[in-house]
Each structure stands twice: as C-alpha cells, then as structure tokens.
Amino acid sequence: MSYLRVVKIFVLLLIVAPLVLKMVYIDNVLYEQTGTKLFWAMSVLINDAIIFSGIILLFYLSYLRYMARVGSVVLRCLALFVAFIYLIDILIIINFNSHLVVVDAIKYTSYSLSYLQQIYRGKEWLLILITLVVVGFLLSVVFSRYQIKECYVHGYSIITILILFFVSYFAISSNDQYVHSWAYKNVVDYNWVVLSESKEYSPQFVNDFSFEEKQTCYSRVSEKRNVILLMVESLSSYQSQHFSGIRDWMPNLDKIARNNLSFLNFYANGFTTEDAEIALLTGLLPIYSPSSYTDDGGVAFSGFFDIKESLPNILREHGYASEFLTTADLEFSNTRNWGMSIGFDYMEGQEHPYYENWDRFHFNAAPDEALYDRILNRIELNSQPNFFMFIKTVSTHHPFINPENHNRSEAETFQYADKQIGLFYDKLKEAGFFDDGLLIILGDHRAMVPINAEEIALFGAHKTVARVPMIVSYGDQNSGQETAQYQQTDVFNFLKGLVLDTQCYSDWTGDIFGKKPAQYIAHRRGDLRNLVSVFSGEKEYIVTLSGDQTRMTNNDPKDDEIRSHIVGKINAARLLKNRE
Predict the structure, then answer these.
(1) Which pLDDT value is given to residue 479?
(2) What 3-state DSSP class applies to 512?
(3) N or C: which end of the chain has fewer CB within 10 A?
(4) pTM of the full predicted structure?
(5) Residue 175 in 3-state DSSP?
(6) Residue 421: which of 403, 437, 406, 441 has the closest Cα?
(7) Is there a contact between 184 and 19 (Cβ–Cβ < 8 Å)?
(8) Which residues pair with 320 in a beta bridge?
C-alpha cells in the first residue's frame, strides 16, 4: 500500500471519528436512561448524515481536476470549519449536556478558550489541539496539489454522498416527540428548531394581548430578620440522600435539612445561574422576550435590568442593606451591572484582595472555603441594623475539580462543597447569627450532566432537570418536611413577605409562609430552548415559544380555559416590557 493511500485512509478515519464518538457517547448515555441499545447510535447517524455528506461533498469538489486552486482552498477551509463546529458541539454535549447554541456562543466567547483548557488540561487538551492542526495541515497543504483522477475514487465519493443524503432523509420525518430527541439532533437542526424562541410577536398581537392573574392577599405580622440566601452552584436533588435517596454525597447538607425546614418538591425556574438569580431576586419568571443581542446590556439578563420591585429595592425601603457576594467574576454575563441595576448596595467578586493568596479555579474563582470565610468576616464587620446577603458559590461548577486535591471528580467536588457548607453553618450558629437571622440554602439549577435512570423513575424525565434542594433554617429551631411543590420565585415572595404586613399568592406564585403552593410552576428548559415545561401537581405541560404561535404542544388539557391560561401566562412573561 502506497504512502499516499495510507495518509488518505488516516485522514478519512479522522473525519469520521467525531461521528463515531458522538454515536458511542449518546448511545451509552441514553442506554443508561432508557435501557435501549443501538437505537440512539442509529438516530445520531440518521440526523448527522446530512452534515457529513456536506463535508465530504465539499472535499470532493475541492479535489476535482478542473477546480481552480483558490476555489479548492476555499471549499476545503469551509469543510474544515463545519467539521470544527461539529467537534465543538460534541464537546459541549459531553461536558454540559446541551448543544452548541448560537446565543451561547456569543455569550460565552470570552471564556471559551480558558474553560476548555480547564476541562481538557495537560495532554488531553494538547492532543486535541495537535490533532486539529495535523488534520488541517494534511487536508489543506499536503494534498493541495492532489487531483482526483482514479475512477474508483469518484465512484466511492459519489456513492458515499448519495447514501448519506438518503439516510438523512429519514431525519426529516423522524419522531421528535422523544424526550431525548434533542441529544441526537445535529447541531444545525437543533439551532433551527430552537430558533422559534427568537420569533417576534406581531404588533397586532401585542396590541390585542391581555392577561389577568388574580392574587389573593392577607395580613400578617412582619418580622425583620437578617437574611442569607445561599445559592450553591449545580446543587441537585440526586446528589443528596435526604432529597432523593440516589447519592449520599451531601451528609452535612442532609443533617441541616433534617433539623430545619426542607422542601422535597422544589424546582428551579430555569437551567442557568442567571435564570436562578432573576427568579430569586426579582420574582419574575426567567423566560426572555424574543432574543435580543443588544438591548438591556446584552444577552445575559436581557429585559431584566432596572427592576424596581426587586428584592434589594424592597428590602432597602424597610431599612436593609443588601450585598451580593461571590468568588466568581462579576463581569461575566454582565452580572455586576445587572446586580447594581436592581438595587444591591454592595457587590463583590473574585477581584477582592481578600482572595489574593487563594488558589484559583473556574472563572478565576477562589474555593468555597474562602467565600464562606469572607462572608463571616463581612457579618462580623457589619454595622447595619438589618442586612440581606445573596451568596453565589462557584466550586461545584463543571468540570468538577476538588479544590483540596485538584482531582476531577463530581462526587469529590460535592463532598468538598458539603464539608464547607457544614463548617459554615456551624460557625453561623457559634456567632449567634440565628438569634435574629434566617438562612436559605438552595441550588441554582440541576447540574449540567446527563440525567440517570434512577432520577427518571423517581421524578420523571421533565421534572428531573428542574429539581433542586431547598432548606429554610432558623438555626435548628423549626424542623419539618414540605412535600408540596414550590419554586425559586416563591423564595422571592417569601422574603418580600418578611418585611411587609401583607402576603399575597396566586396560581403562579406560591406562599411558603402560609403553605399555599402555586398551582403552576414554569421551568425554562435547557435541552430545547424553545420549550417551557409547566408542572401542575402530577400533570406536566409543554409550551412551545414561537411568537404569535406560542402554543401548548404536549399533554393539552381538555379544558380550553386552562390551556389558554397557561399559554397566556407564558406570553405575558415574554411581553412584559416595563418590568417594575
């Protein structure tokens, strides 16, 4: 066998390797969740065939005898670009349980390289980089003068392209109703599907639209307590024995939960940290208006700046000082500007000198231990009569690096976080914080890793991706388990109610204090961005976002009034331009 033929075979294998990798990975992951083998690998092949037929076609045309040299280079570079996008999509699926999305690419561009270096550090990262360079070099330089002359090469190329085109035909009519269909879609098809999220409402629809959400209010005695709202990165129900029985990584958190009020049926309203911050601090559903890349400070928090009825603003009116403390970079996702716009008196991130001598990890953040030390320091120095602290941890962010030994392990990382939560809780008790203080611990969103069969059996496929733990602690003075459904926006309502003499609730906003859960809970989904899940007791509904055609697409309630009410609420959340 000639040297040139060996190189051709090697290059061909490198081209198809990403497809094989995705087929194997998706099949293994979904096999763990469904017990079905090979079906998912074939689904990947069917959906991705169109991508690879395009790549092969571009290469084939670039090596035709009468193709100009400039044209050949352009076609080859275009093929390499498509292959590169495909590879990045696979890396995102493996590491974040989501596809490459155009909006995310814009949002996270500045952090992409450093983040990939953290995930594929050392030889792994170097190997991937070298492979990409070698492939690009071989295809663009070594073969730059090569032209297809052999009839069998023409034949193989055309047959391969036609077969892949034929296989891709089945993807057009494939069943997208599978809960796992997002995983095996190709990156182009996926972005096309979720594009309906960006579809604008027509002026006539906006003009004619109305929605009424009735509230029930009652009087209550306000109580001024110092409040710490601790939002733990990626804290999920499956990691806790108390909240799921699946894993036992959080014994200290479980102990706190047993000795205080634990909410066993609690939901995140979105799938990102920003979504949780919006829900917790403004009480609004983090369901964005049709996508905008420029308004209100960019993609992150778009439409949620300058909320007058935010928690910091409400608390300030009642004598509270509010602080936002984290070891993350507050410039990331425009968090500092957003936080100040909704009324925080003080915001502090990884830039503070307190963290100078600590090791740095994701987002240049010091470990959770340093953050908790800093919080205790701030409490000790506090001179305000009442304070509200919003705390955002970072250590348990993917790729799950244990700060104590730098091991890459999800279990070890959450065990580390649990240890620090336990120590922090004990120190708060020793300092007398609970004499007039309240601590709330919850997750921002479920960890961005594949769901497992145990979770699906326990919670159901759609609810699993929204379930997070939540604890309300008065310092081991009041214990109990709440099994009714609550959500992050209800925490806002609860904390607002602490300082007011009136407490309200509605079909979409629960009252934790009065034990009146919301009838409906909305969750902005991360698998298919154009879908919103709505939970009502045991019932689950799905709403597709598509401008004027926003509609219920699954498990339609027979009652037209309920259907209209659910869709109306989602439209109202997206059309509310002056969020005050």
Answers:
(1) 93
(2) coil
(3) N
(4) 0.87
(5) coil
(6) 441
(7) no
(8) 386
